[in-house]
Specification:
Helix 1 crosses helix 2, helix 3 crosses helix 5 and helix 5 crosses helix 6. This protein has seven helices and seven strands.
């Protein structure tokens, strides 16, 4: 009699299903992580904008209102009760609404100018706004801006060993100049601000500072000190070239005693033995100091 052959059990089929399911789950988890990171970044960015806005409620509404249309309407305001009424027809795109009917809303009046922030609070608000703006523009900075300075690695701005801005450095300088021109006119004199400014402390100085460790008694150390100052000057010139209005800002009205340009240049170096070579580990910063 012919012997029956036993059926071979395919064990690889189950394993292949297992491997495929594992790969699919890894892919799903990876996509989920990317989406979570994106929404976390967007939430942080929008939260920072709302936290630094003059009127957070209005700023939140403007983020969703993408098609505001100007309309002429007769409004009625009770300043004592802080109530504003508009004709009902104004709120309809087609102008529909019962004649004589009104819709009323409560509002909060602007704060009196006497309630001004202290110098510490003003600097804190400035740095929060600058940090949010730089993140939105994807400008790379190092360290925490809450300390009162925006820090940039020199190797991100300059060609190695020189004070010449690289293409990336020129782009960064242009973005930073645009952001400074948006924020600083309210904190200085000489340039009209684009938006209404609250009364409060003004900036005493915004220093473009290049920091380096050096051995001042060596030839390389002296070259590093010279290069640091040249880089501070180069960044200052790039900022004012991108936004000429920055060069017109002053810390006091023109002609007043002690009036100086708001954006200035400084260089800081700590001498130590065995310091790094020329241009290594240098940092270029913009340091903000509020006046009294």
């Amino acid at each position: 009699m012919r012997r029956k052959r036993s059926r071979t059990i395919d064990v690889e089929e189950g394993e292949s299903y297992y491997v495929s399911m594992t790969d699919m789950m890894v892919g799903v988890i990876f996509i989920f992580i990317i989406m979570l990171s994106y929404f976390a970044f967007e939430f942080r960015s929008s939260t920072a904008k709302l936290a630094t806005a003059k009127h957070p409620e209005t700023a939140a509404l403007l983020q969703t209102a993408a098609n505001l249309q100007p309309k002429t309407a007769d409004i009625e305001i009770d300043y004592g009760a802080q109530v504003l009424c508009v004709p009902e027809a104004t709120l309809s795109e087609s102008g529909q609404g019962a004649a004589g009917e009104r819709r009323c809303f409560a509002y909060s009046p602007p704060k009196p100018s006497a309630l001004t922030a202290s110098a510490i609070d003003a600097q804190k608000l400035l740095m929060q706004a600058l940090d949010a703006d730089l993140r939105d523009a994807r400008v790379p900075i190092t360290g925490d801006p809450s300390g009162g300075s925006l820090n940039f690695r020199a190797d991100q701005l300059f060609v190695a060993g020189t004070a010449a801005l690289s293409p990336d450095g020129q782009r960064i300088a242009g973005d930073v100049a645009q952001i400074l021109m948006r924020r600083l006119p309210c904190l200085g004199y000489g340039v009209a601000a684009e938006a209404d400014c609250e009364a409060g402390p003004k900036l005493a100085v915004a220093n473009v500072v290049s920091q380096t460790n050096l051995d001042i008694f060596s030839t390389e150390g002296q070259q590093a000190a010279t290069l640091a100052l040249q880089r501070a000057v180069a960044l200052h010139q790039a900022l004012t070239a991108a936004q000429p209005g920055l060069a017109s800002l002053r810390n006091a009205p023109t002609g007043q005693a002690g009036s100086q340009p708001l954006l200035r240049v400084a260089s800081v170096g700590q001498s130590q033995e065995g310091a790094s070579k020329v241009g290594d580990d240098q940092t270029v910063s913009i340091q903000f100091q509020m006046g009294s």
